[in-house]
Specification:
It comes from Blastococcus colisei. This is Tetratricopeptide repeat protein. InterPro entries: TPR-like_helical_dom_sf (IPR011990). With 114 residues, the chain is mostly helical. The chain has one domain: Serine Threonine Protein Phosphatase 5, Tetratricopeptide repeat (Alpha Horseshoe). It has six helices and no strands. It is globular. The chain starts with a helix and ends with a helix.
C-alpha cells in the first residue's frame, strides 16, 4: 500500500513539474524549463510530450545541438510527427546545415505540418 502511494505521488509530481516547465517556457524562460525537463525525460525517456517541450526549450535557449538530439529522438519515437520534422529542419538550418534540413522539410510537408 505504501509503495502505491509513493508511486502516485511521484506521478503527480512529474505532472506538476511538466506544467511548471510549460509555464517557464511560456514566460520566455527556456533555460529554467530545460532544468526541469531534463529530469523528466531522464525519468521517462519515451514521453513524447516532455521530449517535445525539452526540444523547444533547447531551441529557445539557443542550445541547438541539444535541440537537434532531442528532436532526432522524437522523430525516432514518432516518425509521423510533422511538427518534430519541421522543428528538426529549422534547427539544422540555424546551424547552417540546410542541405540536411531538406529531407525533413519534405517529410513535414508530406505530413501536412505548418
Amino acid at each position: 500500500m505504501v509503495a502505491r502511494v509513493v508511486t502516485q505521488r511521484f506521478e503527480i509530481d512529474m505532472h506538476s513539474e511538466f506544467l511548471r516547465a510549460d509555464l517557464f517556457l511560456a514566460m520566455g524562460r527556456p533555460t529554467e524549463a530545460v532544468r526541469i525537463l531534463e529530469r523528466l525525460v531522464e525519468a521517462e525517456p519515451a514521453n513524447e510530450a516532455a521530449l517535445e517541450m525539452l526540444a523547444r526549450s533547447y531551441f529557445g535557449s539557443a542550445q541547438l545541438a541539444k535541440s537537434e538530439d532531442a528532436l532526432t529522438r522524437l522523430v525516432e519515437l514518432a516518425p509521423a510527427n510533422g511538427w518534430a520534422r519541421r522543428a528538426l529542419a529549422r534547427t539544422l538550418e540555424r546551424q547552417s546545415r540546410g542541405s540536411e534540413a531538406v529531407s525533413h522539410h519534405r517529410m513535414a510537408d508530406a505530413l501536412g505540418a505548418k
